[in-house]
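Can anyone check this?
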Amino acid sequence: MEPFDEIQAIYDSEKRNQTQKSAEEIVDSARANLKKLKRDQFWTIMIMSVPLILLTYFFYKVGQFGDWKLISGLSLMIGPLLVRVVLEAWSKAKLRRIQTYLSTSEFLESVQHYFEGRKRIQKIFTPIIYLLYGVGIVLFLIAIKPYTSPFFFAYCVVTGIGFWIGFIWVIRYSYRKEWELLKELEKMSEE
């Protein structure tokens, strides 16, 4: 029986060395993570709102007098950005409803429900938004090509495609950060 006693002693010492978080620490950490999610969503909305405002201003000043390619291109650039900003604002409102004072099971359920909604946005809406915005850029570039110099057209191509890639990067980056925080919240709520 001595080998078993040694194994039991090792097991007991490992059990005592593990640090268990108190309920207050878990709640404080959950509050901090929710606050970080809210702040990140705010900045995502702000970052996407700036080009949305600029494109809308350009559309009303110049674009509405253009041909169908220019109007369609600008509309396909403005529309997906607007949809994405609305989806982010809707998610932010849902995130605001998650309360840390709920019981663990209710908290976990609300985080899980929020997480499922975010996954739907990322898997259904986001690829469509990327595609429509890309088509809008192409139509916009086709529409302005006859009216611009080759140098300015090349500049528009580089900045337009650069913004599109940046737009994709911002959304993916914010989603990855959000995914990590939600996983951490889910893990904390299981403890």
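Reply from J.R.: I decoded it. Helices lie at 2-17, 23-61, 68-96, 104-144, 150-190.
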